[in-house]
């Protein structure tokens, strides 16, 4: 009986400990519904479920709400532009908050984000409001605005 209970407990622990990729982690957080919708529209779900590692500067639903609805709707319908905007939020590699340095960093989209560390961390003009949400294929840092490639 003890061995059976132990086996059940170990199996439950193993299931609970299964790591989540960046997409699953963001969806589970509950504050990235618009980002998840945008990733789906751009066909980027499988990419961000891939091996990585990735560092994602993830805008919250409130960040997307700062974009006028007509502009956001148009962006969601323009797959090429949407893909460019979303991949501009992704940096190759896993960069934890303690490793962030001011300067320019190349994005998956190809352009460079400007990272500033004076008075808190900003990515272009977006403020990083939460850091180090670890996923099994990278890390998410939450930002308060959507950043656009130049």
Descriptive report:
The chain is of the alpha+beta class and 150 residues long. It has a single domain (21-143), classed as FAS1 domain, CATH 2.30.180. It is built from 7 helices and 7 strands; from the N terminus they run ααααβαααββββββ. Strands 2-1-7-6-5-4-3 form a 7-stranded mixed beta sheet. A hairpin with a 2-residue loop joins strand 6 (126-135) and strand 7 (138-143). Helix 3 crosses helix 7. The longest helix is centred in the N-terminal third of the chain and has 15 residues, at 2-16. The protein starts with a helix and ends in a 7-residue tail after the last strand. 29% of the residues are buried.
Summary, kept brief:
With 150 residues, the protein is an alpha+beta fold. The protein is built from seven helices and seven strands, in the order H-H-H-H-E-H-H-H-E-E-E-E-E-E.
């Amino acid at each position: 009986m003890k061995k059976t209970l132990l086996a059940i407990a170990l199996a439950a622990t193993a299931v609970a400990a299964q790591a989540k990729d960046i997409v699953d982690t963001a969806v589970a957080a509950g504050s990235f519904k618009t980002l998840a919708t945008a990733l789906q529209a751009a066909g980027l779900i499988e990419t961000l479920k891939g091996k990585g590692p990735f560092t994602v500067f993830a805008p919250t639903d409130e960040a997307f709400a700062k974009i006028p609805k007509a502009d956001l709707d148009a962006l969601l319908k323009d797959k090429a532009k949407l893909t460019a905007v979303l991949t501009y939020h992704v940096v190759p590699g896993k960069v934890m908050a303690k490793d962030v340095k001011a300067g320019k960093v190349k994005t998956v989209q190809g352009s460079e984000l400007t990272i500033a560390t004076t008075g808190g961390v900003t990515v272009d003009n977006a403020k990083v409001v939460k850091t180090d949400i670890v996923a099994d294929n990278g890390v998410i840092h939450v930002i308060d605005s959507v950043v656009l490639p130049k």
